[in-house]
Amino acid sequence: MKSPTHDTSYKILFSCPEMVRDLLRGYVPGDWLEDADYASLTRVNASYVSRSGQHRHDDMVWRIKVGGRWLWVYIILEFQSEPDPWMAVRVMQYVSMLAEQLVKERGKSGLPEGLLPPVLPIVLYNGKTEWRVPVDVADCFLPPPRGLAAYRPALQYLLLDERRLQQYPLVEVHNFADAVFRMESCRGLPELDAVARALRELLRTPELQSLRHAFNQWIKALLRRRATPSMIEEVETIDDILEEFAMLTQHQETWFDDAIEKGFLQGQEKGLEKGLEKGRTEALMTVARNLLGLGRSVEEVVQVTGLSPKEIQTLLH
């Protein structure tokens, strides 16, 4: 049986209602959470076809009743190494495709008063580069001429940048979503083992065995990304990684190659991160230069690109 990739294991994990419930309760703001009926969480087929024939198959789409009406939650799993500057445009397109599908199936979905239900777009990102691109599609457009501001598109998504989320100030795991984000940010096997032990206790009940299986697949995929070839072979032999995680920590000295200990691979990783950051900055500087050429002010360019005023000032000379 082929082992699931990290991307696939994430999709399996967020196909479990308990994960989506804890994601909403732990990381989405608003008083509406008090009126949410978590037992009503239902996953919806996310394969939509727009008029242009474009398909969307892999995003997680759920709906939940809030105060007797449905709220649709569109979870976009973003696994690129650095942020997509046009993500807000993509989100606008995805929400539009979902709306088209709801209109098409309005007889089945029972749209109240002929209106579409509210949609909450969530972008879940786990890249190393900080997310410094627009979260509102309005910021992807130049300011319109005076009197036309009302016609500029506007749609904001909720960004959950895993590596930079504020961790709960508790020693124990707060909930299942918190466990995922903690594991993504762990720097060594002892830290991973502490979270795994907490999860093991939380997932002992029979009704959570599907989620436990999903966590096992996801943790294995997480370890494959970080382990040496010899350790990957050892991981593959373990059926229940949550039960046997402690065994791995006994061999943590073999988790990284000798090159890691000498700093060689660490230097490679830092060099790669520096290269990615340099490429991202160069791209944003090009955008800034174009905006300045169109007569936009330094303040407007700062807002659109996220660059500092000092960086933009260098383009004026």
Explain this structure to me?
Helix 5 runs antiparallel to helix 6, helix 6 runs antiparallel to helix 9 (241-249) and helix 11 packs across helix 12 (298-305). This protein has 13 helices and 7 strands. It has helices at residues 6-13, 17-27, 87-104, 106-109, 176-185, 189-202, 209-226, 229-236, 241-249, 258-261, 264-293, 298-305, 309-313; strands at residues 36-44, 48-49, 55-56, 60-66, 69-78, 119-125, 158-161. With 317 residues, the protein is of the alpha/beta class. 46% of the residues lie in helices and 13% in strands. The strands form 2 sheets. Strands 1-4-5-6-7 form a 5-stranded mixed β-sheet. A two-stranded antiparallel sheet has the order 2-3. The N and C termini lie far apart (60 Å). Mean pLDDT is 79; it is low at 253-269. It folds into 3 domains: 6-164, no CATH class; 186-256; 264-316, no CATH class. Strand 4 (60-66) and strand 5 (69-78) form a beta hairpin. The radius of gyration is 22 Å and the shape is flat.
The tally of domains stands at 3
List SSEs in N-to-C order: HHEEEEEHHEEHHHHHHHHH
Strand order of the largest sheet: 1-4-5-6-7
The gyration radius over C-alpha positions equals 22 Å
Features:
317 residues, 46% helix, five-stranded mixed sheet, flat, two-stranded antiparallel ribbon, alpha/beta, 13 helices
Show the helix and strand layout:
Layout (H helix, E strand, L loop, with lengths): L5 H8 L3 H11 L8 E9 L3 E2 L5 E2 L3 E7 L2 E10 L8 H18 L1 H4 L9 E7 L32 E4 L14 H10 L3 H14 L6 H18 L2 H8 L4 H9 L8 H4 L2 H30 L4 H8 L3 H5 L4
Parallel strand pairs: 5-6, 6-7
Antiparallel strand pairs: 1-4, 2-3, 4-5
